[in-house]
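TL;DR need structure tokens for one chain.
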Amino acid sequence: MIEVKNIEKSFNGIQILKGITTTFETGKTNLIIGQSGSGKTVLLKSLLGIFTPEVGKISFDGRIYSELSADEKRALRTEIGMVFQGSALFDSMTVEENIGFPLKMFTTKTPTEIKERVNFVIQRVNLINANHKMPSEISGGMQKRVAIARAIVNNPKYLFCDEPNSGLDPKTAILIDNLIQEITEEYNITTVINTHDMNSVMEIGEKIIFIKEGVLAWEGSKKDIFKTDNEAIVDFVYSSNLFKKIRKAQNKEL
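>> reply
TL;DR here they are.
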């Protein structure tokens, strides 16, 4: 579990995060949503240790990040997997080499052990026979699978995903969502996803944190969205005709 207590973050005198307190639960897909400029990316980068809040604390299973030594912070980073927006694969490396990169960098595993682990995660994300292909030779959906495989290859406790469905068609996006959720449950990972994709919210939103103008404006599950009277989340989620129709149908059934 990741706990966030009253964190504040400013840039050039402008406060971006305004006293956010929440938890990201283990074994669940925790989604951060909000409009552009709401502060959700700043929150994600604060969780990753890229930004340091001026106020408040972030703890990983009881370990307060700001109180850790440099060595302890490095150790914690080996427990974190990251799926970047756009996949961020190394163009000059094969699929196999991309996935094995964290093991070569952060572990003392032998080449044989690395190969065995890489082959295992390749099979887990359904990338059979893709070991020796280059990123340019595979589809966007397959590239996302490579990025997920690389993120989980070192058995992380925490998985962060930044807009994992960016650039994907709706069908492929659903497959990637489902894969992330399956892996989260299977390995009991604390998964945090920064997204603007409302399909992801309704597909895998086990816990949703809605940020508005730097404030935690609402939190709940995808089921709670249909029942809430919180105007901020209702306006945000139901800005599309599709979700207005869904909400109307849900209310009729109640």
